Model the fold of this input.
Amino acid sequence: MSVPPLDEIQSTFAFLDAWEDRFQYVIDLGKRLPVLPGHEKCEPNRVHGCQSSVWLVMEPGENGALSIRATSDAFIVSGLIAILLAFYAGKTKAEILAADAPGFFKELGLAEHLSPTRRNGLFAMIERVRALAGAVQ
Done:
């Protein structure tokens, strides 16, 4: 399975009125997220600042875009990762660094419904993506 495109995620969030339904959708996205191979679940790929274990890998993609893969040991966090991956899909280094991921999650209404530790973990993942993108030559 794979992550749906960002416009599909946005449409689904707009369709779902209740936070409980949106929360279940995030969990369902997490269940669809491809798992990283075991050798990539290593300390250099670990995102620190998350309550759950999160590993993130960034590689050069096509046409200057950066390819991001990530996984977590928790479905809700994996769902947040799926949304984050859809948000950054096909973006170049410059586009990633200019993108307002926190604003996007606020638009979706997710940021205010996450526990403080989950919210901190989400922002740690965003900062990790930005740091890895910034280090790309």
Summary: The mean pLDDT is 93. The chain has six helices and two strands. The helical segments are 6-15, 19-32, 75-88, 93-98, 101-108, 116-135.
